[in-house]
Every structure is written in structure tokens, then in C-alpha cells.
What we know:
The termini are far apart. The longest helix is centred in the N-terminal third of the chain and has 27 residues, at 17-43. This protein has helices at 2-12, 17-43, 45-53, 79-91, 202-214, 286-289, 353-360, 371-383, 434-439, 462-482, 500-506, 508-521, 532-537, 549-563; strands spanning 110-119, 133-142, 154-161, 166-170, 172-174, 179-185, 190-200, 219-227, 230-237, 247-249, 260-262, 274-280, 300-304, 309-312, 333-336, 339-342, 364-369, 388-390, 401-405, 410-416, 426-427, 447-452, 487-491, 528-530. α1 (2-12) runs antiparallel to α2 and α10 (462-482) runs parallel beside α12. The protein is α+β, with helices and mostly antiparallel strands. The relative contact order is 0.12. Helix content is 29%, strand content 24%. Among the domains are: 1-43; 333-563, 3-Layer(aba) Sandwich (Rossmann fold), CATH 3.40.50. Strands 1, 2, 3, 4, 5, 6, 7, 13 and 14 form a nine-stranded mixed β-sheet that branches.
Amino acid sequence: MLQSLTKTIMKASVCTRRNLHTMVIFLVVAVFILVLRNKVILVTPCQFQHKVISTIIIPRVSTDPDAHRGFCTLQPLSANDALEERLLLDSIAWPETPLLPAILSLEHTSDPAHSTFTILPRRGGGQWQVGDQLEIIIKVSDFQGRPKKSSGDFLLVRLHNQKLGAGVAAQVVDHLNGSYSAVFSLLWEGDVQVEVTLVHSSEAVAVLNRLTSEQPDRIYFASLFHSGSISETTICNACLRPTQQPQCNYTDLRTGEPWFCYKPKKLSCDARINHAKRGYIQNITANEKKLFQSGVNMKVSIRASGPAKVTVLPKKTGHSEMKSSSLKSGPSGYYYQGAWLALGGTTVQQFNISAISQCLKGKVVHMYGDSTIRQWFEYLNAALPDLKELDLHSSRQGGPLMALDNANNILVKFRCHAPPIRFANILIKELHYIANEIDGLPGGANTVVVFGIWSHFSTFPVEVYIRRLQSIRRAVKQLLERAPGTVVIIRTANPKALTLYETITNSDWYSLQRDKVLRTMFKGLNVHLVDAWEMVLAHHLPHSLHPQPPIIKAMIDLIMSYICPQKGG
């Protein structure tokens, strides 16, 4: 089109004045039509996508930062942040899988009962030894036993020995042809059992992606507005569908985080009192529901085609020591005798009650996030006898919560993150953004900042989560610049038990996507990671949104090891 226009201009330059005038008019009209055609596509990406999505979707987030999800209003990004967002979205792109049509039978989708994994022989032959790498191949078939040719299934794998209290996780590599592989580090002597779990079929992932694209408001919230004798409640969300009803804009002025409520009919936007999760809209077809059946095709083990375990002998003298950094995608740690052992250079110590008190002596610990961070506050509050919680007359779910040990000068605080928090009845004055809280800290060697933010963002486009992390990261960088001795600890996401409701609103697939973003964004900063993903996956206890006490104890030991590292370790 542009070449054609160029030739037209060249011809026009040798025409008469009258012909030139005619050609200029033609050129203007042509350019106008070209721009108009492009504009229709660019300004209505969701309308265009919606027409296609009824038959097939591409289960990957858009890499176009301007293609925002319809009614989700996102703040514009700087050039650097926009480039980062594009790269992040590319890094978590999922293989294409056709959305399950209404006429397609479940028999054509991934079936864990007909799928298998195989342990490959040891390279060089002989017996397995500590320090070796064990590789498995996973082949997925449908309910009729036919090997699948497409990819995109969501699988989890681990090695374990429950008698030894040992376990380690590994990453799965998708070969884009219905087969997958994983490589494990053999870290202990004795038997190691391979366990492979199909979390979701590729078809189920396609449904999850569709829901986020079309229904980012399927979890909805409400606020009470009150003034004098008048009270009104309206629906609120980060992604609020436009209607005839005006909206109140509560976008945070410092971070740019969006939040909106429908304006009350009688009251002003300033009369907003509280925030609460209000409900959930389930809008999937009966055919799609079949893709999320516990015990059938959701979080179901895949059997081995041969032996499912191997026996590992002691490492031979002279065999090189295995280090996580030497692995392409090595684990961050593993369990042995119930204790978590890190592989990234940190020596994880075992802290009893006295040791925790001694470690935290003279320190202020600021905890921000969701209920998985509140678990840590509650653990310390229950475990340390001299740590007494103060009654702040606040919400138990959201806080603020505060516990003080006068004798050891220890202060531990918890506050939930700002919307979209799914807690009930939190006063607006208690909803603080993590970035703003960190900006208000002086920091220093006696300051510990702990945060975790992931679970409550699962129903929203990943761009919403990226922007939240970008604002938090800016605050963390500034904190570490003004007070380099501050200890900053970040909790990752973790796998959980899945029902249909939990899957549609908080699937492990959503968590995995956001977990990858979190790790990438904070890589290279002087912060510490509690790898909750691997710590839950590698443990023998069932997956849970709120990990059970033995796992929490392992996490606390890791946290204390970051705060009070072993001398010379």
C-alpha cells in the first residue's frame, strides 16, 4: 500500500497543476482510509478477539501493551516498563491449543489414565549415584488412548522418599508434540520415587485463558457508602464494566493502581466506607466443566510405563559435588529428614523458639500481603511466648495486626495488600498499597520487610499484576538505596488443592504464570526468595493454599536463616 502511494506521489510531481490538485485529494483520501482501517483494529482489539474466541483462542497473553483487556483500564507505562512488560508476556506465553467446541467429546482431550512416564537409563550405564541426573519422558494420550500431537498440558513432577522425609521438584519441558521431559538431581541415598501429576489438560488451560480474557471481573467486590442516615452499596472492581451508571475512580495517585466503584445514586464518591469481596459469577459451559473433574483429569497422577523408582548409591570418591547453579533449571532446594536444604548458597539453620527470639532481638518485621503471609505472622505470634499481640480493633483477616516482645525489643506487624484483596469488610482507611508502605519505611539493619502478593490477582490480566510488581519493585529499590542493610524477603506462589471454583478463580496455572513474572522481575536485586512453590511441591503433604505446619516451620527456618545467616556460611 505504501509503495503504491509513493509511486502516486512521484507521478503527481510531473502532472499539471490541475492534475496535481486531483492527485493530492486522492492521496489524502487513500491515507485516511488506510488509517481508519488500522484504527478500527487497534482501538477495538477485544471486539475483534471476541469474534474469534468462540471457535479458537491462543492461550498466551498479548504482547501488545496497547491491547488491554476491554474494560480493564491500565495506566500508561514508560518506554522501559512497556518493553519489560512485553518481554515478560513473551516469557510466559503458553503453547496454542484450540478451545474445546461444544460438539467436541471429552474423549479427544488429555487423559492421565492413558498417559505414561518412563525413566530413561542412566547415561553411561551402571547404577544410580548421588549427584547423577535422572531424566524422565512423559507421553500424553487422550481418553481413547491415542497419543496427543499437540502440547500445552500443565504437569507437575517431583522425586520423593517419604520414609526419609525427602523430596525435590523439577521443571517440565514441553516438546510441543504431546511429549514432555523433566530432569531431576539425585540428592540423597536410598530409593527415590518419581511422581508425575496432570494438573490441567491443554484444553482446560485454553478455557482458563478464555475466562481471563473475557471475564476478568468474575470475582466482584463491593463497597458501602454512608453519610448521615443514608447508606448505599455498589459493585467495585479493577475491571469495571461500563454502564449508564457513573463510576467513582479510586486509582491510587502515587502508584497508579486502578480501582473503580459504581457511583451511589444519592451519595458522593467520598462517602465510601469499606471494601469486601461480594461474589463470583461462574460462566462456563457444561462441556467445559468436564475438563475440571477431580480424580478424572484435574490433579491426577500419571502412571509409569516401567519402574517408577530407582535406588541411589553413595557418591563415588572424586565425583564432583552437585550445585544448583550448575543445572540449567536446577531446584532451589530439597527436603531431607523433613528439613529444607537450600541449594543457592544459603545454609538453612534449624531455629527453636529461643533461637528465633535471639535472631529477631531488636528488630522490626513488616509483613505485607495476603493470608499466606499472615500465616507467618500467626506462626510467630503463637510460637514465641513473650510475643504478645496488641488489640488494634482491626479486621482479623486484613489487619493491621501487631505483636510486641518488650523484653527482646521485637515488633512484628502484618497488613494485607490493597485491592483486589478478597477479604471481607475491610475499612478503606486500612487498605494500603505495599509500595506506599515501603516508601514510608526508614529501613536499616534492624528492619525486615516481608511480602507476598499473588493469589488475589489470578482472575485479572497479567498486565495488572505486572504493574503492581513494578510499583513495589521501585519502592524496594529506593529502600535498599537509602538503607542497604534492610533485609527484604519475598514469598512466591504455591500449588493448592483444586475444586471447580478454586480452579476457575485461582488455578495453579494462574499462579504459575504470575510466579514466573515475580521471579523475573526481582532477579538481580538484593532480596531473598522463599520458594513456596517448590517447598510445597516437594513435600509429601497435600497441596494447600495455606501450607500445613511442617511446611510453615521449614519456611520460618529459611526466613530466619536470611535474617540471621550462619557466620561464615
